[in-house]
Amino acid sequence: MNLPTFKYNLDPIKLGVIIEEETICPVCKKERDFVYDGPFYSLEEVEGICPWCIADGSAAQKYEGDFQDSYSCDEVDKEEYLDELIYRTPGYTSWQQGYWLSHCGDFCSIIGYVGWEEIKHLENELESDIKRICDDYNLTNEDFKNFLVNDGDFQGYLFQCNCCKKHRLHVDAS
């Protein structure tokens, strides 16, 4: 059985938030070979949600939970985009609260975890995000490049606009 497709998280296996593991999903009660292993904000502690129950919104509905905090997102043009992101999209693993970037009035798709080595070819395209990050963290451009290491204490998260394909960058620190 093919995994569902998520508009804002195109490869949740690569990101490590959907893993191959046999489980009985607590939502649909079906035996599944894949399980969600990422952030889920609910009053109940829930484990073992399958990707199909994320995609159809039944997991968020059953547990009155969110896969992304609605206050930790850029603004978008339509409420339906926010609903899809927080109720039907697997999140990503981050040091702090994850933040979801937007562009062209819609949320971007998360592409991956990055350090400077993985994105230096995108420096010109990411110029405004890099400037914002340097200002937010009181860093010089050179410090930013030295500190941003994939799987390090200063982690980058690369996003891409689904409309114009522009890349965006978010970071957080341990």
Automatic annotation (TrEMBL):
InterPro entries: UPF0167
Any single Pfam family the record assigns to this protein: UPF0167
Family named by the database record: Belongs to the UPF0167 family.
Record-given protein name: CbrC family protein
